[in-house]
Amino acid sequence: MEECKLESLSVEPGQKVACIWLQVSVLERQIFDFLGYQWAPILANFIHIIIVILGLFGTIQYRPRYITGYAVWLVLWVTWNVFVICFYLEAGDLSKETDLILTFNISMHRSWWMENGPGCTVTSVTPAPDWAPEDHRYITVSGCFLEYQYIEVAHSSLQIFLALAGFIYACYVVKCITEEEDSFDFIGGFDSYGYQGPQKTSHLQLQPMYMSK
């Protein structure tokens, strides 16, 4: 079995590339969520970016608490992305057409990809229905090569894959740091052959003292 060593936990170039790719994927998703005013995903993405930075800091500085917190967050992150997938695929009672959960029910905005997906053609419908708000336009979208819900599902699936890889690595790092700390021996700290202070003798030795005249 391969032995864990703290020296092997330094951030290698390949790990740096993986961290950069992880952050870029989240930032790309954050941009399009901003364009679609998807407030719940915006908040989740922001928290994820912060915790990824803390997890990287914990790996560099050998802080198992930071890495453990990062691993716990990844479980929540996977859960969130599974919910997003179920939302766009309308699993159970969820509906992407009627529910505005992702905008906290404060706006009628949808995914940015709904109107701007590959090959999509947007046509304004006039006159608009009576129930449509005055500051919103009523449109139809057609000709999309890939429906917007599948693009959102692909984004969430990528995040789940990256989160699972990060969780495995985080558990490995915490295991290595813990084993190294358990086997570490402070020099002279608990050594039975360490320094011992002077001991008192059972009797004093008297020496003659001469005085000159």
Automatic annotation (TrEMBL):
Its main location: membrane. It is a multi-pass membrane protein. InterPro entries: Na/K-Atpase_Interacting. It is found in: Cell membrane. It comes from the Eukaryota. Keywords: Cell membrane, Membrane, Transmembrane, Transmembrane helix. The chain crosses the membrane at residues 39-58, 70-91, 156-174. GO terms for cellular component: plasma membrane. GO terms for biological process: regulation of sodium ion transport. The keyword Kinase does not apply. Pfam families: NKAIN (PF05640). Coiled coil: none annotated. Belongs to the NKAIN family. This is Sodium/potassium-transporting ATPase subunit beta-1-interacting protein. It comes from Geospiza fortis (Medium ground-finch). The lineage of its organism: Eukaryota, Metazoa, Chordata, Craniata, Vertebrata.
